[in-house]
Design goal:
The protein is α/β, with parallel strands linked by helices. Helices cover about 40% and strands about 15% of the residues. It is built from nine helices and seven strands. Helix 6 links the parallel strand 4 and strand 5 (about 140-145). Helix 5 (about 105-115) packs parallel to helix 6 (about 130-140).
């Protein structure tokens, strides 16, 4: 027969065998995200947002569409490059940066670099979008074309970074580019009422 208090515990007792709960070990924290927000130009933060009742009715929640193409480079990646270039501008390292890009990251880095007088080189495949290559050049970056695909461009960018002591900017590898991404959500200004979804309209290529 089991004792009367089997499976029960007094409120004054604490479980001795249970491990202490720990916060998940992640690369990001809210403090870093808030700090990153201060480094980003308002042209990337304050993009317009709209309620979409028809989609919300279909999904059973409030849907907010945030138009992440409404900024000078027409993509969200300027958030990350703003933070990266702000940190480089404040530091003592050479004011040089390099990335491999098929278009959007290169435009973003060129824009943020030019705003802070930082020399930027963008390595891209020779078959990349010609319009985006021209746009990167017009934003002030130097262009290096390589044969092959984006992986060949990344390898060349790493070589340039080592040879010239330039900052190698790799999307999602640089923690600053990750810290800036949640700001898309953080800058949503509508207070939550019921279950809410957010849709971000942007461009997927790098």
């Amino acid at each position: 027969m089991m004792p009367e208090n089997y499976g029960m515990q007094s409120a004054s007792e604490s479980p001795a065998a249970q491990p202490e709960a720990k916060q998940p070990d992640t690369r990001l924290d809210l403090g870093r995200i808030r700090e990153a927000r201060k480094q980003i130009s308002p042209v990337f933060r304050n993009t317009p947002q709209y309620a979409c009742p028809a989609l919300g009715e279909a999904l059973g929640c409030d849907v907010i569409i945030k138009l992440e193409t409404a900024n000078p480079i027409r993509c969200f990646k300027g958030r990350g490059t703003e933070v990266v270039m702000s940190r480089l501008a404040r530091g003592s390292d050479p004011k040089l940066a390099v990335c491999a890009s098929a278009g959007n990251l290169g435009q973003a880095l060129a824009y943020s670099g030019a705003a802070r007088s930082i020399a930027v080189t963008v390595v891209t495949a020779s078959n990349a979008n010609a319009g985006k290559i021209d746009r990167i050049r017009r934003l002030g970056a130097a262009i290096q074309l390589v044969e092959g695909d984006i992986e060949n461009a990344r390898a060349r960018a790493r070589e340039i970074a080592v040879a010239s002591n330039a900052l190698l900017v790799e999307d999602s590898e640089n923690l600053d580019t990750c810290s800036s991404s949640p700001i898309t959500c953080h800058s949503s200004r509508r207070p939550a009422s019921r279950r809410e979804c957010a849709c971000f309209i942007g461009t997927p290529d790098s």
